[in-house]
Each structure stands twice: as C-alpha cells, then as structure tokens.
Fold:
Amino acid sequence: MTATATRVLVLNSGSSSVKYQLIDMNDGTRLAVGLVERIGEQTSRLAHTPLAAGGDKRETEGAIADHDAALKAVAAELAADGLGLDSPQLAAIGHRVVHGGLKFTEPTVIDDAVLKEIERLVPVAPLHNPANLTGIRTAQAMRPDLPQVAVFDTAFHATMPEYAARYAIDVETADAHRIRRYGFHGTSHAYVSRKTAALLGKDPSEVNVIVLHLGNGASASAVAGGRCVDTSMGLTPLEGLVMGTRSGDIDPAVTFHLKRVAGMSTDEIDVLLNKKSGLIGLCGDNDMREIRRRIDEGDERAELAFDIYIHRLKKYIGAYSAVLGRVDAVAFTAGVGENAAPVREAAVAGLEEMGMAVDASLNAIRSDEPRLISPEYARVAVAVVPTDEELEIAQQTYALVNA
Ligand code: ADP
Structure:
C-alpha cells in the first residue's frame, strides 16, 4: 500500500446480488455506490452512481452470468469514472462475511487459511457464506496484490457470555454440530451502539444500550459498556423478532408438527419460516409503508400483523432491560427503525414506568442525523440512529491494513 492509498472498496456479496461502495477514508466520502441484482438471470441489472464525478445513476440491464462477470462489470463502471480497481489510491477491499463462527471475532486479512475456515462454516450459513466466498475469490483474482479484509456479521456478538450464547440442549450434540447462538447484524449493532453513546456525549464504556435494528431482517441486542451481552438472532438469522419474511421466535415443535402432520419437507419448512412468514406471512405485505397505509384504510389483517410485530419488539425491550439492569438508551435503526415513526411510538408506548417514552413531535421529525426522540424528563434516552454498515466495514478494513 502506498501513502496515497486512502480508498476502500466495500463489497457485500449476496446469493444473487453484489452491493458496493468506494469510500475515501480521509473523510468517509462516498466516491461511487452501486448494486448488481439478479445475477445468474436474464434480467440482471447494474445500477452505478458515480458520486465523486457528480454523475447521475447509470443503469444497465441484461444477463450477468455469475459473480465473476458481475464484479468485472462493476470494475468497468468504476474505471469509466477513473476509479478503477487498478488505482494506486485503493488501499484494500473490505468484504462483508455473514458467518465467522467462533474463530473470527475481529476483522481479518484474508489468506488461504481464512478462506478455508469461512468455507468450513458453510453448513451453519448455507445461504450466505458461499456467496461471500465467491465475492472474495473473484476480487482476489482481479487484484491479487491488494489486501482483502473480511468483516464478520457475527463478530460483535462474540462477547456474549456463555449462558446467553448456549441453547439449553444436550451439550455433546450442540458442540458436535457447532449449534449455539452467534447473532448477526453485528456490524450495525457495533456502529449504532457507539454512535448512540456519542449522541449522549459519553464514551461507549459508560453506557448500556438496547439496539433495535429493524430492516427487512430485524434483530435486537443488549450492549453493556460497548460489549454485546445478548442478541436476538441465533444459530441463523431466523430467531428473534418478527421480520419482513421471517417468523422469528416460534416453538421448535411447530417444525415437527409441520413435518408429521402437514407432511412438509425440511426444505419446505425452511422456505415457509424464512421467506413466507413474518409480516408477509401474516398480512401479505412486508413493507412497513404499505402495512401502515392499509391500517389507515381500516385493514384488520395489516393491523394484527403490526400488533404482533410490536408485541414481540416490546418483549425484547423488556427482556434486555432485565439483562442490562440499567438502560441508558434505546436506539432504533435500519429501514423501519429509522423511518417508521408509528413503530417507534408503539414499541415504547406504555413503558413509562421503565423510564421510556417518546415525544410525538420529536418522533415525527425526519432526518438522516442521529437524534433523540424522548422527552426531556425520560430517564432512558430513546434515539433514532441511522446505521452505516458500509462505513463501519471500510473503517475496520482501513484500520487493519494500516495497523
Ligand atoms: P434490509 O437491509 O434488511 O433489506 P432495510 O434496512 O433497507 O432492509 O429496510 C427495508 C425496510 O424498511 C422496508 O422493507 C420497509 O419495511 C422499511 N422502510 C423503508 N422506508 C420506510 C419508510 N419511509 N417508512 C416505513 N418503513 C420504511
């Protein structure tokens, strides 16, 4: 790396998509952002926005066969703006990797041994780790000389005490199959809990925060003095809160019942719980905007779905208040948490005895900045803190290659 290398490319490779951002680490400026969708289909789409050049979004449609072709197309778009992967200003590539198991609790420079270990974790993250691996291998082939860093979604949760991480099942069986609670969205929980402390004018070590990451996927975490002590997702991202298409917590016996009584296969149950449950299963919509619109029109199914979503959220706020003992702040983040004022209002309603309240006029303000929405008298700060997983990945990557 040269002294002028101050840029980091962040790659988030999903099963059929690649999201990317090129970030200047001097000040966190986005130089270019984009997304390749529907990789492997005839109708792939690349949307690229060259922010540095002040250019408009460029969209290209047409078959992109695989991740290799997708990354080459991204590289060509970047090169067209003078931001190509061969630029000496590029310091590193930071990859989001979903599952780091027990081994990876820190961002890690990727070598062959690291690749092998990410591969060894495929059985516990069958949907995510293979796509992450493909993205890494393709990027390595394009710039073999450049440091590539893996930033793991599970890492922030590695500090959970054993009694929070272990399921109460037979220890030998659990250990033989690496069954335990790992947690996900860790990059976001880390970033948001730190930002919340900053909003309160405190060091992260001084505050206890409940972070509610409510996107299409959703998770809660209890963060004590900057360290995660519990989180709602488990072995996989299926556990915990009601999500856009995932059930979150259910009695595990529901799965036996679906098999024995409804005659469903394991794969069918997997699809049911991950893709056809949660808000979409309850009311046919997973977008909170649409659900609120239907509620305003008097739609009872949408209202029940909303109530179930809020009830679960409230239970986690209560549980994590007990886990933390003292709560300094509750922070809402991600698509729903940052934008859906009715969700924030309903989740905190009735928790005044716990020191939590939302001020209606503060809650109604729309902004991209971290902000308090609790009234001055409230003992617990309730905050909206926009997440920025890409910046967090870039910062962790840059810090590691400059260490
Ligand atoms: P993910 O990264 O998990 O795909 P996001 O964090 O981008 O999800 O959140 C997407 C969700 O945010 C949407 O499905 C929608 O429910 C919700 N959302 C986005 N904008 C708004 C809005 N203005 N009002 C209410 N909900 C919103």
